[in-house]
Design goal:
This protein has about 260 residues and is of the alpha+beta class. Helix content is about 20%, strand content about 30%. A hairpin with a 5-residue loop joins β3 and β4. α2 runs antiparallel to α3.
């Protein structure tokens, strides 16, 4: 399924004007206060691990540059093109901490494998530019997408009780979305759409018109021992009073122009 979607997504491209390897002029890009980067030790066997901790500390274990780019820009593999072959093969470990003055320094992720927040992603972008010499540009193309819209049922979204909580969406028992349902804490519809995208294999665009952040919970039960995650997501989203519809829409992508192996710490 992913391969077919990936191929179809690359058919039509419309180039948009974005910055290359930097923020717009006059806008300071957040940076980590301290960051250690080194090649992964093969003996550990850990591949693609991302860990976030209270205080904003982030660890990346056994990550390729390709994967780091996906994390930094909150995109999927089919949204990255170009770059040297080694960026999908060679793996690195990163330990990074944000400045005490940053919002991330006050973050309290609900569990160690919670995804990086937006500020941490921007800090990772700065690290990739500084340590990997990353140069890129963004392109927008038309391709198959899901639209997250209001459904016919009453909304089961509750205005977030604690706006300072770490935004999160995942499975009922915490962690990744599996087959038990969908839950969220202090989550905006835009962020929910982004979190659903990896599981559905294509971009999800927020078209609900709902602003603010919400708490929600929708349990899902199935006779199948290994329930299909996509079926579960479609059902749980509908139970929350929302709906996912297929459409054509803009698909953002990152084109890698240049990257180099990082120097030692």
């Amino acid at each position: 399924m992913m391969s077919k979607i990936g191929k179809s997504l690359f058919i039509i491209w419309a180039v948009a004007s974005f910055s290359r390897g930097q923020q717009p002029s006059g806008t300071a890009t957040p940076e980590f206060e301290v960051a250690s980067l080194k090649p992964s030790t093969p003996a550990t066997g850990e591949v693609g691990g991302v860990y976030t901790y209270p205080g904003g500390r982030v660890e990346f274990r056994g990550c390729t540059l390709q994967y780091l780019i996906e994390q930094a820009f909150s995109i999927q593999p089919f949204q990255v093109s170009g770059g040297p072959g080694w960026m999908q093969q060679e793996r690195y470990d990163i330990d990074a901490e944000p400045p005490a003055s940053s919002k991330s320094s006050k973050s309290m992720p609900p569990y160690p494998k919670a995804p990086p927040n937006e500020e941490q992603r921007q800090m990772l972008q700065s690290l990739l530019v500084g340590r990997f010499g990353l140069k890129y540009h963004r392109e927008t193309r038309e391709g198959p997408v899901y639209l997250l819209v209001k459904g016919n049922k009453a909304l089961k979204l509750v205005d977030s009780k604690d706006k300072n909580r770490y935004p999160w969406a995942g499975g009922i028992r915490g962690g990744m979305i599996t087959g038990d349902g969908l839950a969220g804490i202090n989550e905006s519809m835009e962020d929910l759409a982004k979190r659903l995208s990896p599981y559905l294999g294509r971009p999800v665009l927020d078209r609900t018109g709902l602003s603010g952040s919400f708490d929600f919970r929708s349990e899902y039960s199935s006779d199948d021992v290994h329930p299909d995650v996509i079926t579960m997501i479609l059902s749980s989203v509908q139970d929350l009073g929302l709906k996912l519809t297929t459409s054509k829409g803009p698909v953002d992508g990152i084109v890698i122009e240049h990257a180099e192996r990082p120097s030692a710490n």
